Automatic annotation (TrEMBL):
Domain ABC transmembrane type-1: 71-260
InterPro entries reported in the protein's UniProt record: MetI-like (IPR000515), MetI-like_sf (IPR035906)
Topology versus the membrane: Multi-pass membrane protein
Assigned protein family: Belongs to the binding-protein-dependent transport system permease family.
Tree of life domain: Bacteria
Chief location of this protein within or outside the cell: membrane
Name the record gives this protein: Carbohydrate ABC transporter permease
Keywords assigned by UniProt, alphabetized: Cell membrane, Membrane, Transmembrane, Transmembrane helix, Transport
Listed GO biological process terms: transmembrane transport
Membrane-traversing stretches: 12-31, 70-94, 106-128, 140-160, 181-204, 238-260
GO CC annotation terms, alphabetical: plasma membrane
Record keyword Cell wall biogenesis/degradation present: no
Compartments reported by the entry: Cell membrane
């Protein structure tokens, strides 16, 4: 019986490993192609390890264009958007979960209804609003659009609801107000959830193509998704260069996920426990 269980476990591990390799193969091909000369990119059978290395030349070509400017624009927009979105979503989540005020349930339902509206349906009102405010074709306008998240508010509210009211009552006896309770008591208790949302918000903003395409016109303001599209227009016949640009673009996401994966797993586990 034990031998059968061990055999099933080994077979299952092998099958899962094969699926993992299958799903990783496009990513591995992209990295491999970014290090080859153009003539070797589409050789068949595929050379997963390049015979002729051209990595330095490919990456040097990419980074001597406007790519660093697009990179900086993406870092600026993503970091500020993530910080503001985490702050506003946390404050709204705390208010909806821990502060009793008239109409809070109705307002929260309205917030959820807004979440159900497709983002494409409100592009025109957002476009008109930003033009009226003089923020069209600016990073400030793009950051403001991503700083308020219904999903972030809803997600964090569920975690704030899990904090026992006894903590708050004890803090109130010591003279603490809502601001102090929020910063020093409640927010540290939901730190894994906040870290999870911050990582997801950063990834969504970093990969966002739609909003920069609609709300940015000046090329010097482009973020990476638009920058790679522009780079591909100029170097469309050089796939090794496009792959080098793509690998460069995803490096920050890999670093952030590797650093924050423990917090993400912990946050998801907390969410699973709370149901």
């Amino acid at each position: 019986m034990n031998k059968n269980k061990s055999l099933k476990k080994i077979l299952l591990t092998i099958v899962m490993a094969l699926f993992g390799i299958l799903f990783m193969s496009p990513f591995i091909w992209m990295i491999s192609a970014s290090m080859k000369p153009e003539a070797d990119v589409f050789l068949f059978p595929i050379q997963w390890v390049p015979k002729h290395w051209h990595m330095v030349e490919n990456y040097k070509t990419v980074w001597t264009t406007k790519f660093p400017l697009y990179y900086w624009n993406s870092i600026k927009v993503s970091v500020i958007t993530t910080a503001l979105s985490v702050l506003f979503s946390s404050m709204a989540a705390y208010a909806f979960s821990k502060i009793k005020f008239r109409g809070s349930a109705v307002i929260f339902i309205i917030v959820l209804i807004i979440y159900m509206i497709p983002s494409q349906a409100i592009l025109v009102p957002q476009f008109l609003l930003l033009r009226w405010m003089g923020l069209y074709d600016t990073h400030v306008g793009l950051i403001l659009l991503g700083s308020f998240s219904v999903l972030g508010t809803f997600m964090l509210r569920q975690f704030y609801l899990g904090i026992h009211d006894e903590y708050m009552e004890s803090a109130r006896i010591d003279g603490a107000g809502h601001a102090r309770i929020f910063w020093t008591i409640c927010t540290p208790l939901v730190r894994p959830a906040i870290a999870t949302y911050a990582i997801l918000r950063f990834i969504w903003t970093w990969n966002d193509y739609q909003n920069p395409l609609i709300f940015l016109r000046t090329k010097t303001l482009y973020t990476l998704p638009l920058g790679i599209h522009s780079f591909a227009d100029l170097n469309g016949e050089f796939y090794s260069l496009i792959m080098a640009a793509s690998v460069s673009a995803i490096l920050p996401l890999l670093i952030i996920f590797i650093i924050g994966q423990k917090q993400v797993i912990e946050g998801i586990s907390m969410g699973g426990v709370k149901g």
